[in-house]
Design goal:
mainly alpha; Ferritin; 67% helix; 2% strand; binds fe (ii) ion
Length: 187
């Protein structure tokens, strides 16, 4: 467990996180909550389209994104940083097709992967190995999430809009969600 912030014998506040790192993590908390809300809207699209398994899949993804946001919240608190959650922009709720909705989700996962890489770059340049260790989990998670969303998009493209029931069956059978290395890390 990380040290909490506190005062040293000179009365100076000790923290394990720089102001810049805390700012960038706060921004990432907004990005993760943004992803969560985006996936709730995507779930709404699939529910309206009569595709309840895909709706549930995206609601579960939304829960995972919220969990990611809360992991950053806990880290900033543990490291003694100042928590300041930014405004989250309204997410898309109109989609022309399932393909458009899933492709938006895949784009989002690529964007988040870049954001996590930028956080790792900052941790390296600041020689903040505690943050680096924390962030490596997210880098692995992104591999899994990009891979899952890429598989889902390819399936949707292969069957076309009229064949989405087949995608529902594949998702229901657990054949879409990848666990990298075939191992469920139990998060
Ligand atoms: Fe995430
Ligand atoms: Fe994600």
């Amino acid at each position: 467990m990380y040290c909490r912030s506190g005062s040293n014998h000179n009365g100076e506040t000790q923290v394990l996180i720089s102001k810049n790192m805390a700012d960038q993590m706060n921004a990432q908390i907004g990005n993760e909550f943004g992803a969560s809300l985006q996936y709730v809207n995507v779930a709404g699209y699939f529910d309206n389209a009569g595709l309840p398994v895909l709706a549930d899949f995206f609601l579960k993804q939304a829960d995972e994104e919220r969990m990611h946001a809360m992991k950053f919240v806990r880290y900033v608190m543990d490291a003694g940083g100042h928590l300041a959650i930014p405004a989250v922009p309204a997410s898309r709720h109109e989609f022309k097709s399932a393909e458009e909705a899933v492709s938006l989700a895949l784009d989002w996962e690529y964007t988040v992967t870049k954001q996590i890489s930028a956080l790792l770059d900052r941790a390296s340049s600041e020689k903040d190995y505690v943050a680096h260790d924390f962030l490596e989990w997210f880098a692995r998670e992104q591999l899994e999430e990009v891979s899952t969303m890429d598989t889902l998009l390819k399936m949707v493209q292969r069957v076309g809009e009229s064949g989405l029931i087949d995608v529902e069956n594949a998702v229901a059978a657990g054949r879409v969600h990848r666990k990298v290395g075939g191992v469920d890390e139990g998060h």
